[in-house]
Specification:
- This protein is of the alpha/beta class.
- The protein has 2 domains: 154 residues, 3-Layer(aba) Sandwich (Rossmann fold); 182 residues, Up-down Bundle (Dehydroquinate synthase-like, alpha domain).
- The chain has 14 helices and 10 strands.
- Helix 7 runs antiparallel to helix 8.
- The protein is globular and about 60 Å long.
- It binds nicotinamide-adenine-dinucleotide.
Length: 341
């Protein structure tokens, strides 16, 4: 697999000059067909468009059945190609459908959200949700190619951009202090998204290529995610649904607190992380009465064993550790820390 960050027209022209397919399908949702498909249409050989409904609620077997049916009804054979044009939902689910269809056809990803460009499309995780569990069915397999062009960010709603930006912040916090300071200086008004996307992709790629199946080092990418995922799941059932990155931003504040308490991260770093995240993300009122339910959700996380919660935390801004056992009381304190801000 290669990852190209370039003008999308150029990338596609080169790819289709070098690769021939019997049939090509482009997977889109109602937003990417409107905002992104017109940008690539002219660079694609003859193809069929498969449109699905956007959103995490549709990342399931029913939608897969629709995709597999479309491919089957149009006689797609093993020499076919699926082009996934969209955010993380399209990339994860399109990849899942491609690797299962006739025991696997080629697929390429064109991420159109910031989250998909810097996170979901790097590292080979494919999957769908099942029986209320996120990414419960899936595979590790890289797309044949990932073609990234930040031009697609121009139509992305601000809230989605902010959500993806949480992963950019995380990349700086776990691996590169200078990068963290640089991206925080301009926040969501980056002057050069190409450079930001390229550097985040580089950081994630470096980490996953050393540990593709998440046996060790890859876990540092989970900084902010143990608390963040639980908060995301808890509010899924309420009127205050959060986007993934909005929950991860809160998770990073809580886990920065834990880093300070348990890994000796400095109080200065804690203040820097807390203030800079607070400036970008809306405040969420988390009621004390809900803390226990949120912590309970953390035990469902695949990363946790026995009565301790396994966290990835920071020694300092730019350097992370993983498999750090944290007891419930400290996690509770971290939620208090956020709630009192
Ligand atoms: P998403 O795919 O739901 O896209 C967000 C919204 O933006 C959708 O409504 C979509 O239609 C719209 N959209 C996409 N591109 C657009 C554009 N250019 N202009 C206007 N609208 C556009 O959400 P996401 O945040 O990209 O991805 C979330 C998913 O990614 C989750 O399912 C999560 O599990 C998955 N994920 C996977 C990995 C991985 O390693 N595989 C990592 C992180 C997240």
């Amino acid at each position: 697999m290669s990852i190209a960050i370039d003008d999308i027209g150029t990338s596609l022209k080169v790819f289709f000059a070098e690769n021939q397919y019997s049939r090509i399908a482009v997977l889109v949702d109602e937003n990417t067909i409107r905002h992104c498909y017109p940008t690539i249409q002219e660079y694609l050989p003859e193809h069929h468009v498969i449109e699905i409904q956007s959103g995490e609620v549709n990342k399931n077997l029913r939608t897969c059945e629709h995709i597999w049916s479309e491919l089957t009804d149009r006689h797609f054979d093993r020499k076919s190609l699926l082009v996934n044009l969209g955010g993380g939902v399209i990339g994860d689910m399109g990849g899942f459908c491609a690797v299962t269809y006739k025991r696997g056809i080629d697929f390429i990803n064109i991420p159109t959200t910031l989250l998909a460009a810097v996170d979901a499309n790097i590292g080979g995780k494919l999957g769908i949700d099942f029986k209320g569990f996120k990414n419960h069915l899936g595979f590790f397999q890289d797309p044949n190619e990932v073609f990234i062009d930040p031009i697609f960010l121009q139509t992305l709603p601000d809230r989605e951009l902010r959500s993806g930006f949480a992963e950019v912040i995380k990349h700086g916090l776990i691996a590169d202090k200078d990068y963290f300071e640089q991206v925080m200086a301009d926040g969501l008004s980056q002057k050069n998204w190409n450079a930001v996307v390229a550097h985040s992709v580089h950081i994630k790629h470096e980490v996953v290529s050393q540990d593709p199946k998440e046996g060790g080092l890859r876990k540092i990418l989970n900084f902010g995610h143990t608390v963040g995922h639980a908060i995301e799941s808890f509010y899924l059932e309420t009127d205050h649904r959060l986007l993934h990155g909005e929950a991860i931003a809160i998770g990073m504040i809580c886990e920065a607190y834990l880093s300070c308490k348990l890994l000796g991260m400095s109080e200065d770093d804690l203040q820097i992380i807390t203030q800079s995240i607070k400036e970008i993300y809306p405040e969420l009122t988390i009621h004390k009465a809900d803390f226990t339910s949120i912590i309970k959700l953390m035990y469902q996380d695949k990363k946790n064993v026995n009565s301790f919660l396994n966290h990835s935390l920071l020694y300092e801004i730019g350097r992370a550790g993983y498999d750090i056992a944290v007891d419930e009381k400290d996690v509770m304190d971290s939620l208090f820390y956020y709630a009192k801000l």
